[in-house]
């Protein structure tokens, strides 16, 4: 199938991650977007919903998901909200390759899912790929940032016993697009502009999935503190992770370990010593940038990492997964560099 | 030369338009960036100057322009400030293909140039291409937006005698990147955020070149009023042009004429009736969007047009010109859709 | 009543203009806010709805408008949406002094109102003061900017026959707070950030009221073109008005006339020759700044004017009206200078 | 002196904190600004340097500091950069009351000052008041936030042995105005917009002064980690402080202790349980808001605090100090509520 063109459906195409899949697909020689679903917007031209894609003239109109003829689809991006996602995925043909951008299948423990995402329908077997990994075996063994990257930047560290597993504090700052396109007072321009606030302090629902990824990496239970902040930018996520180094380990050891671990990853860069990653350096691109710094408090280090939440944190990572699932070159359609300013 | 790889120099690569040429080049199969000049930054890695391009690992270090070996260069983008530009271009080998993004060669009348850009060195023969057109004949006759697009959106109208040539009022709003990367108090974040101001009211230096383009199109002298405004966005330019229709002509006639004129242009779209172009719809892309509306005042119409000033207004248009000069497909490396949000 | 304290109700206090009335009242020695209404938010502490006013500890909880005891209220600010406003004002005791910030009573012609604000309930007699003027006679004759200021900056000009009444083109740019606090997709941060767009081109509902004001000033019918643009700022409105000068009149004549007209107005400033008003110069203050410039097209001038739409364009102007109605010093609680940066 | 009017000089009035002193002074019945210094801008009208203060018509022109007649000045705000400050203060008459907004006198240990602010002139005796406290005894004993508030929000906690003194991690996010008005590439709008970055990781110069304040409060050495981040807002500072609770202490204990400690402070509010302070809630006001939350990691708490860096973090706190030094009501000219949106 390597050189063929696959017919792709984008489910939930009227949201930001759906639009981003279409944007990236325009540079993909193996993808033809043949189905766009959006139940509330069915019947509309895609460019009426997303006028910035007016030049994507070869995409179809939006349809209801129940009107899709799945025989005409080779693979699907599922860009639906949680809960909705599992209901939809349940009905898809089992032969369909699915890249799921939602949270519905990231947590392996259904009880934990039910706690984090109430009300919690009983969850069935998942899609081909959710963002935390591939179930279709990729062509080679890989270190992969899970969906909550860059919060998971320190992931390889507990595995190697370089940091203590019970004292990881992650201070995250993210852009507004992560909250989606639905109209909410709290996301109005006037409520967001020129300011910062934390939210869900002590209780954010992403913590269990970050812990799950870190625990798997460490081979032992890891507990974290994760405090998200919302800032006035559309895209981007930055994490400042405060970690306690294992006895005898230096921040430079941790940096070297991360650099070695991610070497060969096409979209992860551990920066040169001392260089600080900005969210502006990854805007619109599929790259994750990170670095490690000694903390002023003895025995501690600070890991700083950035991504574009809509690309590496969602649609770009999904495209990367699809490329691997389809046997295409992993970087296809993802070579765009960041856009600055 | 169609399938060959050309060796490209970017002169003045430490500014925003230089960075944008490198960003676009990453998607160009026929371009290898072999020279980056920046006299003040010579010796630095490009990613130290523009960390968002850290993934462009195959670009060279910055050098001084006097240290370039021109025998190793097939074509050059000149991203230098005006006045500097003509001094530099004077010294380049005449065989070198040059795409000039500066204002130095846009005005045909040296006296007018001297008035708009004092102090005014005597100007010599120009480069292969400045942004208002091509001196190397392109493969087919073309309607082209000049550099000051989208201010020139009404350009085809006087030619067709659809609007009066002496009552064109252009209210322009543009992002801050147009002012370049040099440190000036007036462009600090705190001076720009959350606000708008006009500048150069009644006297902006772009007026003569817009008039030159419009006059050529009309075959008769055209005079305009051009009032630029600076708003708190990094990229983008929007023009609201107030025009007086010729007797018997309607706004819809004008709209139809522009649509017909730009049909076949790969990067210009006259939108569906009533659709309003936003700058957000072209961010990061090479597209110009425009539309025409009836004014409430009888006999008048309003033309609204948008571009990304760093792409269609500078580096993207330059790349489009280079593609034509080199005999490559005109749209190469420019297929990226706009990035939103 | 000059030194007494008046008991003030704010109707529709859960919107931005309601909050702004409370903010300004904190500096007013003669005002005690005793009633805040908000039907959907009734029962809440005001600081739960507007946490930035947490320090306004002496304000009451929100109540439903039907639960207000009007005997305990001396004057009311009506900050309700149009249509709702007239229903509410109809029921208020006729003795109550009312400053109305809505559009419901600005248009004198009910038929025109019905056309601009459909569906159009039949309109009854208005409040004590709507923003375009005072019905309670002020202490001295005054030139006043109507609500749609600064669009009306040229208002005094037709009166004096300095400009032609049928060729006034107003290009307006305004912040997002003018659209209120209700949750709409088009006002989400991601939809607004880093961009500009026009809207309601050729048909904005404010045109008739601006024309009404200008026509009254001119003593003859005036027609305008008004094209609003939305930009990524919370507060502020800027108008660039393109006017045609009467024969023999210069831009400097017009400037001198405006300066003379507004002399003595405490909150209007015609700037020094050549100085350009920015919206950033009035943020949070009750000032209107303006200036006049010669256009490049012969016989034309450009009038530039700015206000903070929530202060001079709404709550501050309302407070100024209340001060006059109550016989207080006109500038009370309005002395705050603009906040920059 | 209570009802008299004091003649005030603002030294370094061409920077943002100088402008802010003038803005606040407009609401102060006891202050007449008689001197504004700015060596580079001497001779200019203040409104040419800060056009948003055009309505402050009673302020003098800028002069050179050497041209000030100190006999005409009762008190001075010193808004100069560090190093310059001590040179200037050295020459002032010893009778002059001085409120210093710089960092020059915050550190008590000259050696530490020399390390943090190289090159380090030998430092002489300080001003009447630097922002970390008063040398003129105030009228009553007070708990005061030091200059680096809100980083110092946990300050009262070590004193009461509620948190461990050697495991305090402060993640700070601040607006761009803290960097002043001088033209630097890194503070250009295009470099700042729509993004976040940390800086001075592991080495920020404010750490020693925060430690000094905390150590004094605790009566024992305290060491902190302080990681500042720059975000795209003009004003505001938010700190998320991760602290380890002493055995048996709960987050609610810490919250109650802070609430009790700051009770009676006119400008500090510990919010209701669960309420999250946003920087938008203090913009333009002199308030500090804070709250305490249990961390997900056992035995830890999170303290969140916000201020406007130009008001509570600089000019407003300075005004509060001046009020106390002069025997005026502490809150004079500081009653303005926050401006939102």
UniProtKB/TrEMBL annotation, chains A, B, C, D:
Domain of life: Eukaryota
Assigned keywords, A-Z: Amino-acid biosynthesis, Arginine biosynthesis, NADP, Oxidoreductase
One MF term in the entry's GO annotations: N-acetyl-gamma-glutamyl-phosphate reductase activity
Domain annotation Semialdehyde dehydrogenase NAD-binding: ranges: 7-128
EC number: 1.2.1.38
Cross-referenced PANTHER family: N-ACETYL-GAMMA-GLUTAMYL-PHOSPHATE REDUCTASE, CHLOROPLASTIC-RELATED, N-ACETYL-GAMMA-GLUTAMYL-PHOSPHATE REDUCTASE, CHLOROPLASTIC-RELATED-RELATED
Protein name per its UniProtKB record: Probable N-acetyl-gamma-glutamyl-phosphate reductase, chloroplastic
Organism of provenance: Gonium pectorale
